[in-house]
Amino acid sequence: MNTTTPTTTTIxxxxxxxxxxxxxxxxxxxxxxxxxxxxxxxxxERQTTEDEDTMASSAETxxxxxxxxxxxSLAELTFKDIALDxxxxxxSTDFAGVRAMCxxxxxxxxxxxxLDVSRVSGGITNALFKVRRREHDDRVEPMASTGEGxxxxxxxxxxxxxxxxxITHRAVQGETSYFLNEHGFGAKVxxxxxxxxxxxxxxxxxxxxxxxxxxxxxxxxxARDLARLHRDVVPDLAPRxxxxxxxxxxxxxxxxxxxxxxxxxxxxxxxxxxxxxDESKRAMLASCQIDDKCRExxxxxxxxxxxxxxxxxxxxxxxxxxxxxxxxxxxxxxxLIDYEYADYGPRAFDMANMFCEFAGFECxxxxxxxxxxxxxxxxxxxxxxxEALALxxxxxxWTPVTxxxxxxxxxxxxxxxxxxxxxxxxAAIRMRAFRAAAGDAAKWVPTNxxxxxSD
Length: 455
Hints:
13 helices, six-stranded mixed beta sheet, alpha+beta, 15% strand, 455 residues, Phosphorylase Kinase, domain 1, globular
């Protein structure tokens, strides 16, 4: 999940017994909205743009994944003796901790490398930093021993505090990201440290929902990239419980996550101490109605609908939205990033989530994709037009789950995260959307009116 809320974070780097603390500031354009966008309106007759013309041929043919060149094993990229501790305290503006960590981890960089560091806006789960090596020219010299280029820029991803309590596969995120790279997905992993990743910076801009709103070549590419993820990527993730059949565990993975999150959110929402000094927050938490009735609705009524829909179990991204597709327009390369919530689950969850994300954090459901746009997406995803109706039925069943998924996440984040974002307010809106969709299966398409009247 991304937004553009600015924050200030302290980094404490621990390499062996040495500790350096620095204040972080600055911004950059990675993981943010495109610097150039097209003005679009949702109409029945779509006008073709120049961008769509140039992408048409690649949209109509299977995507060729860009697999990352590697000369290092995962073990060689792993530095468990290094930890970055992001907090809200201010210290200085020199980014010494991030610099020291990159000098140690990034191959081809060192203590004599001049680095420019800036805070990346947009993350509300992790602290993100862009680090670029300063050179007299913009060349990327090949490594003499491997033929690989020395990275010009990297992104340092510091996992948010407490996220290991509710992000299921956090402990193996480095391994999973490396595996995804082998299939042409995600930014290239350059290093794995105790509580984060170093990834190669992608010179690209995020796709915006407005770019997808009229359909066309870019929408088809997004759909086919998602289809390839669902079809080709099968990581070997250990089941949560021992002595459980792997197939059964994968089918139940999202429900296991939801039970864990519901229990955590229930404790937070019903604990007076969690918002004792903030009456408005306490009232907002109460309005979320995380109670036994909600539990019964989710795991009884809504799950029965999902089981009946029978959406195929695949490896899901679980945070699909337009902004997580980075588009290098110069080289015509589309990259799906940010897999920290990825796990096995129903294919429809990713589609339902993407459609809901058109509304943004404002949850303006006038932006929700039309039936025609959804059908265009399904046809590109499956390449079998007769499957579009089945996919629509699956998405209908799973749409309430996407609402409650992010509502529970936001309530948990309101306790653990130090990032300046209205998590509880966001949770309250998504819970109203959940109740509206769960209350009437025929009215699963979210509308602002239904959400406003769901209480």
